[in-house]
């Protein structure tokens, strides 16, 4: 038996050996990338020296000296730029989370409405989707902020609901909960109910798997969750104390306030993203072929079980990947906050801090890394998820 | 043995056609459905009449100043008065014919590409893509061959929006195709470079890219070499967009069956000929709808240049609403902007859907 | 190693495989394949699925890479060298199970692609040649249609014409009739028989035993990556020696 390695090659040359060619090509590409990188780095060094900017992250410890309209952690003007970054990051996350929750709810409702047997409902859902997904999100944000929020009446003419929610051009005021002394008991009762539900669920599944007898799990769990904490409230009294906002002078005091920028931003983003989510949901449900429904029916599964055991698991497989990328888009679009001055990470950090310090490279690098970190972790999750749910096929 | 008694025959179904039958089937087929219909009608009643009142019946259509807007509804006089600015920005009014001509040339030039029977379409398309940008640059920017120079700082309005979107996609297409090929290359180093590039731009919001190109680009370049604001924004937009185009094209490349590569290789075609003659023509045709969709996204994203102070359509309108002579016109302004963007985006998305259907039923194996 | 090794040791064959081995990862797909095909010979490869017969003929134009042994096609050895691979591919035509016609090109364009771009034939000449071969597979009237508008049998005949347009010395057929509806098998087989009568060197992976009986000079039976038996068709079908061959034939011939 011969080994190919021992056989002399005929007419082989450097130019026609694909392995060598590939190697040379790759080395050239790497050299080009490194060269470009070095060129940019060198230019930047020279430019920074000429402008007298010292690079480095020391500026993060300097005092910021400006106020921020909304901060989820304590913040005063004397805090550092580093703290400004965290305030901005938290504000970005706040908008993203609220936006994602709202967009998911609206989107799923609309997606199902698009498939409704009711003609009118179907048309209305289509109208919504075609209207909002074809208007730039920034424009929608500006509209909600300048045309709606800022033209609301002032605090004295607020629109009030139930004497505890007030909407005016300064934002939405609402009662804030505080813990009363009986909260501990309530919390313990809630915990007990949850634990009991988990055990009940397990027991019911085991019973079904061993004896085949079904058990109304959903109803019993709901009953458990209502009855036990409910009893605690009846016995010990209200676990939460509500502080209601009240008009004092020219503004409201007490309670929670959502600033108008936050309202405009979350409304616009969730309305915009919901249009895309609706289409994803519709496509996902439609992707499960009618044959699957027929097969399930012919096996004797009733409509509800068909939906739960056959259609939804297959539809989710199709829905979840693009849904995650919509969530990611929403998080990225939250940077449009800069257009109306909501204090998110981009407008605070890449806007105000950059202007004050002139540390362009560091500031932009930090901002971009945060977004990159978010998208990389989401795509890692997606890869894991896709690997887990991929249909096993030849 | 028991005898089975058959139930009497059901009567034949009533009216299967007609308005009443349609109503029953589509709007009132059950209790829940009927309630939904009523709820939808209530919603419509809540929204539509006030909207029509505001936008049409109670609106002011004629006049020249804010004082002419006397009624309750919308003040379209504002849009009418500022229309030129919204379309052309600060482009000198006596030279606006050059913008019009550029647009007309684009429409006339591109029209044959939409005619199916047109022979040698690909060749014409490539020629158009080479010649038109030069022509458009000459017309819009001028400064040579007998046309006066109009600096980009005077460009604005819808013109600027269209320029950014068009240049963005034209630049992003070739770059995106190369990146997609690189991402599917056998060479690990090339693959790593392309993947890093693509994922970087896809991971960050466009706004930070625009910040970067406006603040950091001057630092990256040697002393004395500097671009104007628009060019910097365009560089950012092209790099950003090319990553998205690359992912769309990659989808097309992946959809080409392995047999096509094998057949091309068996015929003795090398890599570039295989790609150029066999794979890319099929893959690109397949992803045209996807490319149109990324273009729609780009078109909407052009509005972000507001952040770095370029006066595109949205920024022109935003500026106009802060004019003391026209205070309180935010709603009219933004509604108008929304309408313009909507017409473009909706039109393009319809076109992309039409293409998708056409390609779907087209000749395929 | 001396120059002697480069000369074929056996009588000059147009295809020579000496001790060819191939692995997919850990999986040993081809085990010591030796084959010598003379000009004008018609070989049928058969065997159960996964036996390595397709892989064998795909090694002959390097759609698959072998890891050990050597392959000579028309005097050119298949190595990593691109020039040699190109040279071999110019001389070897291939017909696939799933046709692999290019759907974005018309039938005529499919046929002229390789002559024009690889052999640098002028367009007029390439088109004349394409029409000649399309007539030979009896579908000249379809020249300006797209592949998607043809039936499976017609597509496969176009694929044969396309391969012939390269004027190859050798034709490889990888299960050319397996993807066809039964009523279309005959038109493709007839085309192949016509080719064989004209003296083309053919290697054919197929389960059409009738075709093997009438056309083949030799039948090669493969199983689990090895050549198990090699014989003239008469002897192969009437008097197979190996047990595995007997089992296979009993399954396939009923």
From TrEMBL, chain B:
Q: Which UniProt keywords apply?
A: Amino-acid transport, Cell membrane, Membrane, Transmembrane, Transmembrane helix, Transport
User: Highest taxon of the source?
Assistant: Bacteria
Q: Localized where?
A: Cell inner membrane; Cell membrane
- Membrane topology value: Multi-pass membrane protein
- Similarity comment: Belongs to the binding-protein-dependent transport system permease family. HisMQ subfamily.
Q: Mind telling me which residue stretches traverse the membrane in this protein?
A: 27-48, 122-140, 160-182, 203-221, 265-284, 290-314, 326-349
Record's protein name: Amino acid ABC transporter permease
Its predominant location is membrane
List each copy of the ABC transmembrane type-1 domain by range: 158-347
TrEMBL record, chain C:
Q: Name one GO molecular function term.
A: ATP binding
Cite the entry's keywords alphabetically.
Answer: ATP-binding, Cell inner membrane, Cell membrane, Membrane, Nucleotide-binding, Transport
Q: Where does the record place the ABC transporter domain? A: 15-249
Question: Which Pfam families does the protein's record reference?
Answer: ABC_tran (PF00005)
Q: Which InterPro entries match?
A: AAA+_ATPase, ABC_ATPase_HisP-typ, ABC_transporter-like_ATP-bd, ABC_transporter-like_CS, MetN_ABC_transporter-like, P-loop_NTPase
Localization of this protein: Cell inner membrane
Q: What is its main location?
A: membrane
Q: How does it sit in the membrane?
A: Peripheral membrane protein
Q: Which SMART domains match?
A: AAA
The UniProt similarity line reads: Belongs to the ABC transporter superfamily.
What name has this protein been given in UniProt?
Answer: Amino acid ABC transporter ATP-binding protein
Give the organism's phylogenetic lineage: Bacteria, Pseudomonadati, Pseudomonadota, Gammaproteobacteria, Pseudomonadales
